[in-house]
Task: structure prediction
Amino acid sequence: MASSTLVSGSVLPRAPGWAPTSAPRVLMFGGIALVIAGMLLGDIFAVFVLHQNAGRIGERLSSAVTAVAAGNGAEAAARIQDIGGLLENRGTKVDAHVHIIDFGYLALLLGILQPWVMFSDRAKVRLAWLLITGAWTLPIGVFLIHYVGLAYSPLASIGWASIVADLGGVVVALVAGVELAGVITYFRRAHPPGDNPFLTARGWCSRLLLGGGAALVLAGFLYGAWYSAFDLYRIEQREGAVLSQVLNTANAGPVATQRALASYGDLQAEKAVKIAAHAHIIEFGFLAMVLALVQPLVFLAEKWRRRWAVVLLAGSVLLPVSVLLEVQFGMLAGGLADFGGLLVIVALTAVAIGMLRHDGAYHAAGSDA
Amino acid sequence: MKRARLQLIAGGLALALWGMGYGLWYAVAAEHQALDAMGGDLASAFSRAAARDSSGAASSLRAYGSAAFAYTRQVDVHSHWIGLALLLMFLGLIFDNVQLGERLRAWTASALLAGAFVFPAGVLLQTMLSGPLPSALAIAGAALVTAALSLVVFGLLRSRAA
Result:
């Protein structure tokens, strides 16, 4: 099996289907690059944008309430429009972060699936590059929406950045559709279907990542169910009531107004951290499970592969738990969450380096493809 | 064995396509309008409050609440369909290692696929229909996925113990 020879570092047969320009390679390295980029964007966003943006929203809301108290409707409406712009700034960055990571996961999964896709190698490589191109185009377009706006746009409400993002999405969807046709054709024609050379992982790291990842995903599911059953409707109803309270206290003096505004801010923070914890624990669990499959391609000493697996899982637990604690412990928990994200990024980068070393070691041994 | 695996992989890819198609439609045809409506309703609530029109402000706030209710779910549906689709594809890849009886394996794959479609569909229906049916569908879908995923984990643990 490829894994044992790779770990020992002595004999270096290339993993089947793992040629330098093969579709699995393009998709797996492309996928990991997308995931790392998305996580870096998320960490940078959390440190430099998220809290500052929330502070600006609070300021604009406070100004809007002051304008209401002064009877200046136009000023109040203008401050609310400002908040719309700030929310767009935050929303597009979160969307770019989420889409780039999910496209990375899609690319990784399609890379592992390639032996079961009934197309020529050349067609598979072209599809792989198309997918990676679309997967970068959409999040970059989404990221730019806030900055490009409606400049030179031929449409009334959709700017060029949105159009480019949508085109990226169309490309990814088309490639996914063609890959689906290739998979169905393969399973219909192959009797029995051949073994997939990328599904040979059996070692300690694979078991740890698969078990830990599955536990995280299940925990995320259960937490999401609990949130939707007990928190979602309560928060939504309370949001309306608190906003109403904010408006009603506009003329009741600054103390009452500030108390109502603080209550609204707390509610928004509670909602944000609960949704973020749910999403991140599942995303990290999924990443761990996918990485369990690629372990035979990671050319690192066994002790280092184990260390990176543990680091990845530690970060995967630390980030969502710390995010949940942000409401109680503020910036301390926020810093720990960012550190957890960094641990996952570092571990994932180490895995990517191990996969690159696979080829380096193979070439050093002078083997043929 | 082959059928359950194909069901999960092809079903997952098809569900991902469905989720992407929905996301594209939503981004092009609905999202900007929804965001404009939410911003307009909230601005209107503050303007009316400034004009001391408390009933008008309350009415605008209710409209904002309804728009925010729908927007949250319409976006969640997109992300849940695609997230669950990726999970189905992954489970299809490892399904040979899930040690369960053939009938239970087939049921597990079908339950995963059905739950992954029905759960977000129920959430989306909450924006269109009143009454308990949409929520019941969402809960049933989520329960199916969670139960089936627990069975998969159990099957994986059994395969290691064997």
